[in-house]
Amino acid sequence: MSVTEYEELGKSVARRDPSAVAIIIDPHRGFLTKQNGTKFTDVVNAISKDISNLVDSCSETKPQHYLIGGHSEGGQGAVEALKINQLVFPPAGFVGLAPYKITPDLKISIPSLNIGFSKMSCLVCPCEAALAAYSNSDSSNRVFYQLQTNNWNFVTGGPHCSFADNGCTLGICPGKGNISEWMHDFVGQTVHLFLEAIRVPDKFDYNHFLSAITTTGPREVDLFVNSDVAVMTKQGAIKADPVALR
After folding, report:
1. Rounded to an integer, what distance in angstroms lies between the CA atom of residue 163 and that of residue 98?
2. Is 44 exposed, middle or buried (0-12, 13-18, 19+ CB in 10 A)?
3. What average pLDDT score do residues 177-182 get?
4. Phi, psi dihedral angles at 237 (to 5 degrees)
5. Which of 60, 109, 180, 206 is least buried, going by the fewest C-beta atoms within 10 A?
């Protein structure tokens, strides 16, 4: 995906939270692979150093909070950047849009917002995407929204690329139309709630993030927050009793 594939997503984030500036980056331009943490670090460091010249609204007031994240391999690249730990600014949070591939060693020590799906889509296994990022995050400030994809999701189809304006570049995962319009609005709303919780930590609870589900329309979405333990099943992630897992 190129940066032009996420224009509607960026607009939705800014529309839902006028104080936010959404910057779409491509850490490996011209290549399909986006998961290199060093390349991701180099790009966002360069942007943060020159933010006052790149963004008019930041010319006089510097951003209070920087969020990093990405879709699919771009999400992995952001987590790899956290692992390398060479960012010139302290990231306030991570936003994972079906980030892939998240392995057990990729820990997320900052607040995290993760959005994913209950079944495989565009060859991305949910247990190695948003669910994994949530599980690897600190249990005091993490969120996971799981969209139930039910029977209309297939191995070479489904909504994995619904974050992009026109679905998958390779045509494997269409992900456009009503699902993309809904997803863009949903991401904008959840990022807004995430920023609110970062600004006011007391808001980092289930009820605060539940409002995104009740205000964005009739899709089946599961919500996991903080101490909720998410366990993968054939129907997607479900909540488990942490005591029973000991």
Report:
1. 9
2. buried
3. 80
4. -75, 140
5. 60
